[in-house]
């Protein structure tokens, strides 16, 4: 089967995969989060380990069980995630940003619990977080493959590709894994349909469960370098 052919093609490589969704503290007990389960990142990490890689998983608030055999760095916020990824970059043959970082973080998280004030509402000021993928991609200490993800709400494949190409160019990553979330539920689900693009256009499409998708992504990583 294909699995026999793929076996151990990442042997001797160190790959770093981020997974999950970040939490940005509003106060000591509350945060702004997102619905990322971490499933696709876990599937990528496990698939790479099966193919022989040394795998570091940077896990942001992943509630699912983490497969054994991975080195795990747990992070909470986008700032933590950035710090962990930047620290790991120099030793990585490939980095995959499957995590969903928050785009915004409170300018000034409250030191104590936020209290209600009469029947008034609440306004919180946010600032943009560090773009981890763009920073990794634009600031490379060595030859390595960098992969990003983009979930877009696109009317059709043409629009999805157009959004994807613009995002890949903006981020500066080598590969971007695109999925169209306009119709279906991807967050937390087992199935997925993706198109992988590089700067020249689509390089692969796949659908299936997140394990199948993960192997297609590693195939594209390996192919992008000839022999990673
Ligand atoms: N990403 C990142 N750091 C951020 C935000 C996003 O590294 N602060 C990464 C994600 O992990 C993903 C890729 O960038 O691999 C694309 O994320 P996406 O949310 O689609 O891109 P954004 O640049 O945040 O654009 P948008 O305004 O469409 O959300
Ligand atoms: Ca975003």
Automatic annotation (TrEMBL):
UniProt GO cellular component terms: phosphopantothenoylcysteine decarboxylase complex
Record flagged with keyword rRNA-binding: no
Metabolic or biological pathway, per its Swiss-Prot or TrEMBL entry: Cofactor biosynthesis; coenzyme A biosynthesis; CoA from (R)-pantothenate: step 2/5; Cofactor biosynthesis; coenzyme A biosynthesis; CoA from (R)-pantothenate: step 3/5
Sorted UniProt keywords: Decarboxylase, Flavoprotein, FMN, Ligase, Lyase, Magnesium, Metal-binding, Multifunctional enzyme
Descriptive protein name: Coenzyme A biosynthesis bifunctional protein CoaBC
Entry EC number(s): 4.1.1.36, 6.3.2.5
Bound cofactor: record note: Binds 1 FMN per subunit.
Annotated stretches, region: Phosphopantothenate--cysteine ligase: 15-228
Chain's gene name: coaBC
GO terms classed as biological process: coenzyme A biosynthetic process; pantothenate catabolic process
Coiled-coil stretches noted in the UniProt entry, renumbered to this chain: none
Family: In the C-terminal section; belongs to the PPC synthetase family.
Cofactor dependence: Mg(2+); FMN
Reaction(s) catalysed (UniProt annotation): (R)-4'-phosphopantothenate + L-cysteine + CTP = N-[(R)-4-phosphopantothenoyl]-L-cysteine + CMP + diphosphate + H(+); N-[(R)-4-phosphopantothenoyl]-L-cysteine + H(+) = (R)-4'-phosphopantetheine + CO2
Purpose: Catalyzes two steps in the biosynthesis of coenzyme A. In the first step cysteine is conjugated to 4'-phosphopantothenate to form 4-phosphopantothenoylcysteine, in the latter compound is decarboxylated to form 4'-phosphopantotheine.
Residues engaged in binding CTP: 103, 113, 149, 167, 171
């Amino acid at each position: 089967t294909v699995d026999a052919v793929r076996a151990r093609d990442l042997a001797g490589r160190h790959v770093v995969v981020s997974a999950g969704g970040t939490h940005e503290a509003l106060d000591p007990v509350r945060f702004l989060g997102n619905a990322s389960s971490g499933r696709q990142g876990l599937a990528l990490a496990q698939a790479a380990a099966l193919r022989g890689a040394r795998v570091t998983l940077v896990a942001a608030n992943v509630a699912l069980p983490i497969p054994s055999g991975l080195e795990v760095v747990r992070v909470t916020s986008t700032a933590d995630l950035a710090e962990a990824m930047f620290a790991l970059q120099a030793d990585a043959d490939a980095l995959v940003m499957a995590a969903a970082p928050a785009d915004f973080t409170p300018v000034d998280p409250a030191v104590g619990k936020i209290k209600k004030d009469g029947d008034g509402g609440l306004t919180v000021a946010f600032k943009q977080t560090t773009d981890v993928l763009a920073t990794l991609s634009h600031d490379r200490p060595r030859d390595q493959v960098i992969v990003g993800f983009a979930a877009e709400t696109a009317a059709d494949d043409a629009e999805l590709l157009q959004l994807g190409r613009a995002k890949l160019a903006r981020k500066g990553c080598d590969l971007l894994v695109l999925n169209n979330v306009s119709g279906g539920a991807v967050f937390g689900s087992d199935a997925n349909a993706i198109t992988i693009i590089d700067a020249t256009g689509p390089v692969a499409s796949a659908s299936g469960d997140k394990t199948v998708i993960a192997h297609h992504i590693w195939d594209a990583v390996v192919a992008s370098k000839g022999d990673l």
